[in-house]
Amino acid sequence: MRRGLWLLGLWACGGEAEPTVDPATLLAPGPHPVGYRLTEVNYLPPLSATPRRLAVHVWYPAVAKGEDRPIYVVRKSEVATVDAAPAELGPLPVVLYSHGHQAYATVMSQVMEHLASHGYLVIAPTHSGNTFLDGDDRQTDIYYQRPLDLSATLDHFQTLQDDPLAGRLSDRIAISGHSFGGYTAFALGGAQYPVDALDAGCVAGTTSAGYCSTLDADSRALFRAGFYDPRFLAILSYDPGDFGLFGGPGVAQVEAPVLQVVAEGSGFVPGDPSSDPYWAALHGAQDLHLLLRGGEHNDFTDSCGSGVSIRCSTLVPAEVLKPLAGYSLAFLERVLRGRSDLGPILDGTTAVSPLYQATKR
Q1: Dihedral sign (CA 161, 164, 170, 171)
Q2: pTM of the predicted model, to two decimals?
Q3: If you compute the radius of gyration of the chain from its CA atoms, what whole number of angstroms results?
Q4: Taking every pair of C-alpha atoms in the chain, what is the biggest distance, in angstroms?
Q5: C-alpha to C-alpha distance for 23 and 341, rounded to whole angstroms
Q6: DSSP β-bridge partners for residue 271
Q7: Which of 215, 277, 282, 306 could be disulfide-bonded to 74 (CB atoms 3.0-4.6 Å)?
């Protein structure tokens, strides 16, 4: 039995405590200074004779705040300190993040910093060959390399030795991702590929051309086996794509709790969460759907507040990102830390922001 079922059973038996949390406490920075470091992970993926090299960005609670601020492509951090000494807090809950197609690993840095300030270790690998420095073409390999990148990155950090972060990862781990990264998160969370139907779609021209482009017997076998990684106990998905590679029955295989966040401008209808096919296929009692009213696909990233106007709305970026970080924190606190005082926020009774429409099962 997958661990997600055990968790759901535990919550069902635990009941719901009376609300004691002011949403403002979720929006405010946490008690810890934020450290940041850039490192590297190398691994040999299946079907390749060449190791993959991933630049990996890490945020963590630190001992003290310093002056050396990291620069994240389009913004300079106002809070994180490069290579700050980690705080002595014991093993920490962990969030791995997968960036979108033609994006970059620090594209949601404000949300990542917020989580680190509240005591989370956040790890974001770069999907080599699928960043803004690369072309727009997708080929079959990136569809399986992406989830493998995350699992290999987690392997690396769980086996660190003689490193300031060694021993600081607990087994309370979530996977998150935006856009193509949302697809990646669902793949790791257990969504299954209907390979035979996808094959037929490749012939008919209805399956993603990128997925079909260099598909062969070996890569087909990888998709058939899937990329479920039981270490990930929760999914945070921000406007995910590529639903068609799983379909409803494939997504229905996901058992981990899911925070599903979408933008109205991506084609989703306010008041009708079933217009989101991922949500319609999910069934978890602890799942939460958030719709950003008037929002666009990249509003969830740093880009829209940094002069990059691709798929951005006219919403004020800070008014989008601060509640997004608060909702993400609340979901993680409940799933990974077992807090029982967040029910009204996570069932939509207590609004964190009027921009977000929350729907629970």
Answers
A1: negative
A2: 0.93
A3: 19
A4: 58
A5: 11
A6: none
A7: 306
